[in-house]
Write a structure and sequence with these properties.
- The chain is an alpha+beta fold and 213 residues long.
- The chain has a single domain, classed as Gamma-B Crystallin, domain 1, CATH 2.60.20.
- It is 11% helix and 20% strand.
- It contains 3 helices and 10 strands.
- The strands form 2 sheets. It has a 5-stranded antiparallel beta sheet with strand order 1-8-7-10-5, with no helix packed on it. The chain has a 5-stranded mixed beta sheet with strand order 2-4-3-6-9, with no helix packed on it.
- The chain is globular, with a radius of gyration of 15 Å.
- The relative contact order is 0.22.
- Bound molecules: calcium ion (2 copies).
- One calcium ion binds at residues 37, 120-121, 164, 166, 205.
- This is Beta/gamma crystallin.
- It comes from Promicromonospora iranensis.
- Keywords: Signal.
- Residues 1-31 form the signal peptide.
């Protein structure tokens, strides 16, 4: 269960300002994706709608494995450049770096480890073209540190996923905190290991940014 309003902003604002800019181009192109939250699919959820269903949270998951699973299932089109905001279809990618804020460009989606996957829909499903954001660190080969006191990267969600995330799962020893406003501001969740439905805690379609540790 995720606690609501359990943290308050503590990050230096100045350090984050530069990272708050999102490209309007990709977001605009994305707007036609017609995001839909579909509450009527719980009973039929299966591996066919979640290519990562057989993986336990905290399991090892490389970006290469994500690519293989998505492509083999015909689940979406890879974005050619990094960043959730550049996603061309259901799946988008955000490369984050230890100690830095923002989805980084210049990294391809064949290196590194996945730290978290966020879903527009609840229960990790991708039906109705539900959007999926794959957050990874291109430099990681081991995973996150066991402590949560260190900032292992974060970013704002792009417009297409802003106030839309409904479930989340973490990998490689990482945890995620969701923040209600961009720049890790206002109210944040406790550290989330895995949450298949953010609605009971009041965090459904609320998050605008995230941090990893
Ligand atoms: Ca949603
Ligand atoms: Ca950590």
């Amino acid at each position: 269960m995720v606690g609501r309003f359990t943290r308050t902003s503590a990050r230096p604002v100045a350090a984050l300002i530069a990272a708050l800019v999102l490209s309007a181009g990709p977001a605009a192109a994305f707007a036609a994706a017609a995001p839909v939250d579909s509450p009527a699919v719980t009973a039929s959820l299966s591996a066919s709608t979640d290519p990562f269903a057989d993986l336990a949270a905290d399991g090892s998951l490389t970006v290469k494995e994500v690519r293989a699973r998505i492509e083999s299932g015909g689940m979406g089109t890879m974005a050619k450049s990094g960043g959730i905001g550049t996603m061309a279809n259901t799946y988008g990618y955000c490369a984050i770096l230890d100690g830095q804020f923002g989805c980084k460009s210049g990294y391809n989606t064949s290196d590194g480890l996945v730290v978290a996957i966020v879903y527009e829909n609840r229960w990790f499903n991708t039906q109705n073209d539900g959007l999926v954001g794959v957050i990874y660190n291109p430099n990681y080969s081991v995973g996150c540190t066991s402590r949560t006191s260190d900032f292992e990267g974060g970013a704002n969600f792009p417009a297409v996923l802003d106030d839309k995330v409904s479930s989340v799962r973490t990998y490689n020893g990482c945890d995620i905190t969701l923040w209600s406003r961009s720049g890790l501001q206002f109210e944040g969740t406790s550290w989330i290991h895995e949450e298949d439905d953010l609605n009971p805690s009041g965090w459904n379609n609320v998050a605008s940014s995230f941090e990893i540790s």
